[in-house]
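Input record (Table S2, row 575):
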Amino acid sequence: MAVHEFDGIIIGAGGAGLMAALQASKSAKIAVLSKLYPTRSHTGTAQGGIGAALGNLEEDHWEWHMFDTIKGGDYLVDQDAAEIMCREAVDTVYELEHMGLPFSRTPDGKIAQRPFGGHTREFGKAPVQRSCYAADRTGHMILQTLYQQCIKQGVTFFNEFHVVDLLVQDGVVCGAVAIEIATGELYTFHAKAVLFATGGSGRMYKITSNALTLTGDGMAVVYRRGIPLEDMEFFQFHPTGIYKMGILITEAARGEGGILRNNSGERFMERYAATLKDLAPRDMVSRAIYKEIREGRGIGGKDYVHLDLTHLDSKVIHAKLPDITDFVETYMGIDPVKSPIPIQPTAHYAMGGIPTNSDAEVVIDEKNTAMPGLYAAGECACVSVHGANRLGTNSLVDIIVFGRRGGKALGRFVQQAPLQPLPPDSEKATRDRIERLFESRGSESVARIREKLQAEMMDKASVFRTEGELKKMLDILRGLRQRYSNVCLQDRGRKFNMELLEAFELDHLLELSQVTVTSAMARQESRGAHAREDFPKRDDAKWLKHTLAYRDEELVSLKYKPVSITKFQPQERKY
Ligand code: SIN
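Output record (succinic acid complex):
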């Protein structure tokens, strides 16, 4: 058994993981493990910007940002956490600037800012320019900047190490088990603390903006160790994915003046959100697009609408939206300066995840009891600053603010915590899982099961939901689980066995889909991204509470905990 020993390990090398590593490694021996090369992490695909009330182009305040975040999240947001995020966003963006992040600039040299969905001035009066951006490559720039800083600081990286188990001894975290992808060897990482920053699980859906690697590994690994997942019924569909492919077309395209049009060329968002129109929050815009399509106003009667940029100055498009221009030309053969872009909503972001407090410590029950040595930040975590629907730009704020807080907290923890002994044969559970897969001589393939999962989740558990469809989905998941036990790997080698890794990933997606559907079936109301056609209204009296889903052998058992409400009482959500 090969064992590496560190004070703390950070799993995932996107923005949250790198920010945490930068902080924690100032005072402790830290390793970052990633199943990718770090600069290929999904943070790199975040396009339009990072929200912070800098007020560079017009008056803005962190309280306005906080209000928008809470209202955008349909009041399921923990307001103490939202206050921390919106206050600290300002300093954190300047910190990134000082690290060398090449933000776009105003003519007088300040960080440029633009409008984004649901971000307003004076508590909802009109859109405000709050999104700080680097053209439409903001996430890419954040990732490169943080990675450079980590290298400069001498952080240790284990690239292409896929973590598949968390080690816990007597209720205390003591490390993780990873497969080295190049060799297929198992490694135990023995540590006083572990921080998960493994991103989302969008690959449970057929049409998604998420990279192939977004299979919810971190969430599934902790869930299998008895830790609950919070608010997993809330999954965001970004309104503008490239038709049939799901590749993201940033909301910044609408921030720069882009307009959504139906088959008759109508700017239909005027009917759904009179004040913010195309810049309403994503849940509302995605539902509006589906409604237009269902009522026969999709383009040519098909299941897409147009994002129209043709009225914008071509210089603005090329300077501020260069990447999406390139994507649209490459994948659709369309020049967005001349022709509208066919788009449809695309699975984008898990609002739920591993429950944490505002220091990124993982909490395991309704009383928010922290589990010693376990941390999570970024999309795999639920702090919860996004509630039932995340505002655009707030994912980057979340990873930076709570990645930083988590890294600091972990750094403090390992100074005083003893190193727990490893459990006997720490790799046994993983070795058994691998051997089961290698020994199986069934007739099923990972790819076929995954394809069925993604198509059915898209059909039955996406933007609109009903009890009937969710029930059918649970039956389908039971069947897919059965089929999974008959998976036969074609690749029997140990080195770079991607089929083996995909089998682990599929296992995780099946697990998380079951949590999402079970949590969605129980929540008999519509709130944010969770739109139940059989319960179309928000029901604060019964449902203003967070879901906690626990693994109960093959089933999911649900508990609930209160939402933290400090400054803003729930109101009707009008835009
Ligand atoms: C976008 O640019 O629209 C995506 C960024 C985000 O999800 O916040």
